[in-house]
Amino acid sequence: MNFKQLLVPATLLHLAGCATYAVQPLDTRTVVLKNYGPPDSVQTATVGEAIFRVQQAREIPVYIAQREQAVPGVRTPVTPRMPFTAYGRDRDGNYRLTNAEFDRYGSFTVTPDGEVVNFIPADAMQNPRRLDQEGGPLFRPAADYGDQPGAFTAEMIYSGLAGTVVRALYREYTDNLARPAFTQELQYDLGADSVIAYKSVRVRVLGATNSALRYSVLSDGGLPWLPAPRSPRPAAQ
């Protein structure tokens, strides 16, 4: 999902500024996304691909429409599988949702399980609207980890084999830009040991050619070297 959908639309900022429709910042949790599985899983990385890749990300609540739904006063209906992204919570703990196609119309307020409380028009002079709902909650909860500004990413890239020496490139990213000070070329002699390691990540090499590497990630030690997560930007008040 494009991160642009996570931004609070301008038409909703006015609503958020009114005490009646005030929203609080999302209390999201930080997760670490990994490209590797348990120690017994065998993986392959070709030249230019990541042997291991870890990224810190915020878990953003997303709600997926389960059916078509007409909204009073809105020409465009909600359609099945249409995603809506949470950008804040009201004083009752309900989520306020936005979607690129509905920015000009307004936003939904839903309970944590996806039942619509009301639809708040973008025009602050209009009152919230109730929906005639049948068939259970309109939305089902999900989560999104899309492209997130400020996310820290670390990866070891396979660079090929020279004799018995595995070559790799370690690099770190923030905001999807490589930082030169955190880029390092690595070499490991498989003739000495089939286990290669960087920081707390240990990898057993099962086979290597100049074009591909077969391996298992034995452990990552809990990744204690990851930086402290950045605080999310607060929702508009």
3D architecture notes:
The strands form three sheets. The chain has a six-stranded antiparallel sheet with strand order 8-7-6-5-4-9, with no helix packed on it. Strands 1-3-10-11-12 form a five-stranded antiparallel sheet, with no helix packed on it. Strands 2-15-14-13 form a four-stranded antiparallel sheet, with no helix packed on it. It has one helix at 10-17, and strands at residues 30-34, 43-46, 50-58, 60-65, 83-89, 95-98, 106-110, 116-121, 139-144, 152-162, 165-174, 177-189, 195-198, 201-208, 212-219. The protein has 237 residues and is mainly beta.
List the helices and strands and how they pair.
Blueprint (H helix, E strand, L loop, with lengths): L9 H8 L12 E5 L8 E4 L3 E9 L1 E6 L17 E7 L5 E4 L7 E5 L5 E6 L17 E6 L7 E11 L2 E10 L2 E13 L5 E4 L2 E8 L3 E8 L18
Antiparallel strand pairs: 1-3, 2-15, 3-10, 4-5, 4-9, 5-6, 6-7, 7-8, 10-11, 11-12, 13-14, 14-15
Quick structural gist:
This protein is mainly β. It has one helix spanning 10-17; strands spanning 30-34, 43-46, 50-58, 60-65, 83-89, 95-98, 106-110, 116-121, 139-144, 152-162, 165-174, 177-189, 195-198, 201-208, 212-219.
Tally of DSSP β-strands: 15
Helix content: under 10%
What low-confidence regions span 5 or more consecutive residues with pLDDT below 50?
A: 1-20, 232-237
Number of helices: 1
Shape: elongated
Average of the residue pLDDT scores: 83
> What string gives the helices and strands in order?
HEEEEEEEEEEEEEEE
Report how far apart the termini are: 25 Å
Task: Bin the strand percentage.
Answer: 35-45%
Q: The biggest beta sheet, please?
A: 6 strands, antiparallel
Radius of gyration equals 23 Å
Structural class: mainly beta
Strand order of the largest sheet: 8-7-6-5-4-9
